[in-house]
Amino acid sequence: MKNQRAKLGSGEKTGVSRREFVREAAALALTGSGLGHLAAALPGTVLVPRAQAGAPPISIAQAGTGGWLSKAPLPFARTEVSVAELNGKVYVLGGYAFGRVDQPFNQEYDPAGDRWRDLAPMPRGLNHVGVVGFNGKIYVFGGFIEQNRNAISDTFEYDVALDRWRTLTPLPAKRGAIAVVQLDGTLHLVGGRDETSVGTHNVYDPGTGSYSERAALPNGRDHIGLVVVDGRIHAIGGRFNTFDYNTNLHHVYDPATNTWQSRAPLPTARSGVAAALLGGRIFVFGGEGTGHVFSENEAYDPAVDRWTAMVPMRTPRHGTGAAVVGNVIYIPAGGLTNGGSQPSAANEAFVLS
How many C-beta atoms lie closer than 10 Å to residue 69's C-beta? Predict the structure, then answer.
């Protein structure tokens, strides 16, 4: 994608002090001559995390606890991958590697043994697929066949026990960079894009192989974080088309009423994040913005509707995902610079202390 191969400057930090973290999270703002035009075209969209008149207030508490552990790296560097957890294992699918953006790789990480193994590859090479693990299977929705563009509607199911793939009912429309979660036995597919970002919210029933439509995500966007907490779905951050238009938006979906409501915005506007639930809080890691890859690790407490700055990532990355096994969040692979020019084999784990 245009403007997505800019490298980090030589002075880029891999971590920040507590004071710097709080100050920068409160001061960061989006810029760009097209911002006003885009905001006018998208009424109600919050494209900056603060300073804009009428924007929701940001609450950042003092940096919390937590720490990082280095785990066995991936067999080779990858980025723009998708990550899922199933039965205590971590699965990393598709993405960019070896100079190609349409890799079909399917690799499994076993936290208990701290080791990787190769599994049956996806039926076709893709990047930015939507994935989720459920009931012994890994479900894969959509994705791109070119670099962050040219979306498809294919849907696949991977049977872990049989190490075998099969094709399922395709998506109602082509989309890549979809976020997916499991809720009450069905799979919710939120956001993503084909030519432009969308708020489309489909529900896939694995039992019938059918899709249904739910209330669309307000201010459609892609590359979001999606997490289930107490029966509700939180959609956090993301962007409108490119990371030049990152957002800090945070909405929660209530399936009982089929409605979305706003919640405290993400302190640092970013997209391409990894997000996970641990100890009743949502953690949002990394991501990318114009000329920058984020190390930020911010936690949301739904009980008090407040964000807290946590210990930053050891290796800032985007284009990855987060998987929880036990009391640990694993974040494998990802991009070290904007776009896909520098993939990583890093595999780091976040633990609370």
Answer: 12
Cβ–Cβ < 8 Å for 74, 319? no
Query: From CA 143, how far away is CA 140, in angstroms rounded?
Result: 9
CA gap 281, 258 in Å, rounded = 23
Of 4, 27, 24, the closest CA to residue 295 belongs to 24
pTM: 0.84
Q: Per-residue pLDDT tens for 214-266?
A: 999 999 999 999 999 999 999 999 999 999 999 999 999 999 999 999 999 99
Tens digit of each residue's pLDDT (9 = 90 or more) over 1-26: 333 333 323 333 333 333 333 333 33
Residue with tokens 């509607």: 153
User: How confident is the model at residue 146, as a pLDDT?
Assistant: 97
Buried b (16+ CB within 10 A) or exposed e, 33-63: eebeebbeebeebbbbbbeeeeebebebeeb
Alpha-carbon separation of residue 317 from 6, 13, 86, 141 (angstroms): 14, 12, 23, 23
Spell 150-177 as b/e; 16+ CB within 10 A means b.
Answer: ebbbbbbbbebeeeebeebeebeebbbb
Cβ atoms 95, 78 nearer than 8 A:
yes
Task: Report residue 23: phi and psi, to 5°.
Answer: -65, -45
